[in-house]
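Researcher: Here's the sequence for the chain we discussed earlier.
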Amino acid sequence: MIRVYEHGSDSLRPPVLIVHGLFGSGRNWSSVAKRLSAERRVLTLDMRNHGLSEWRDSHGYDALASDLAEVIGAFGGNADVLGHSMGGKASMAAALRHPEMVRRLVVADIAPVTYGHSHSHSHLIEAMRSVDLDAVRLRSDADAILRESIEDPGVRGFLLQSLDLRGKRWQLNLDVLEAEMDRITGWPDSDAQTDHPTLFICGSDSDYVSGEGRARARKHFPAARFLEIQGTGHWLHAEKPMEFVASVRAFLNI
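Model: Thanks. This is the structure I predict for it:
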């Protein structure tokens, strides 16, 4: 089962489905969801192997696209979809495989390409495994251990949102995510194409969407438009949430 969180109420427009990135959860996007829910129903979810959703042995984009199609089907069969990073790739895969289910697509700071070692996150899995959860009483205890290998406090704080202190566990299937990391950073070889209205929102200081990435995006999504939010990196929705939400709202509410 995929855990879904609902915000707002039904409107004449289809719901907006927000799809988080690697190591994230639906709760990470609650503030964006609440802002968008003033006009329509907004759904966030925990992807498989994340949060409160089911742990499964695979984490490729065919499987993730099927999960999204299942959720959209349960909420009327048609949705606008917003995905960030890994969630952006899953959203693109869903739009290409189930075009009848996606009205408009927003992809946040990711491209339909295979990323190299510099964009692998296996070192974060090693850092989380280094935490002796039986000895941790407070979130600050875990943060102190993570600080030994992760300098950025924002990254540590993001990971710690998935720490279940009471259950002494990470709400992440670290074994499967590590085993599937090449598939997560990769992209399925496909010539699939759809003319869906699609907006790629990129951070001006991020290196996730290169010239090659834009070319590949246009190959799959010929109607694609690109927008940069200045002064932001990969976590553009957290760094400049007002600008991000305004851009998403302007594109989706047509």
